[in-house]
Amino acid sequence: MTDDDFDLDMSELSSAEDFLEYFGIQYDRSVVQVNRLHILQRFHDYLSQVEEMPDATQARWTLHADLLKSAYQDFVASDAQTEKVFRVFRMHEPRTASVPLSDLMGQVKHAPSV
């Protein structure tokens, strides 16, 4: 396989199942059905953490396969809400906000000074 073949193959893959099958990763359809976007996003996140992509096509293929398998396994052992891949799952985490009492009192007419 050449670099061009690998790049072309990657550009033609569109679903989580396509990626898993291309890299020869056995998977449970029910896990993928529920978590397909999460798996692909985690795979993308793992790829973005790679500092230097190998030059050899076979090494690149192996790295991609290992990272995809890791992304898939994250959701076999866990779930989307726990893994919090997408921002929407992190939006409801507790936040602390403070407003000085003097700021509030300044907005009320005839409020005593603090």
Automatic annotation (TrEMBL):
Cross-referenced Pfam families: NifW
Entry keywords, A to Z: Nitrogen fixation
InterPro entries given in the database record: NifW
Single biological process term from Gene Ontology: nitrogen fixation
Function: May protect the nitrogenase Fe-Mo protein from oxidative damage.
Subunit record text: Homotrimer; associates with NifD.
Family (UniProt): Belongs to the NifW family.
Protein name: Nitrogenase-stabilizing/protective protein NifW
Gene it is expressed from: nifW
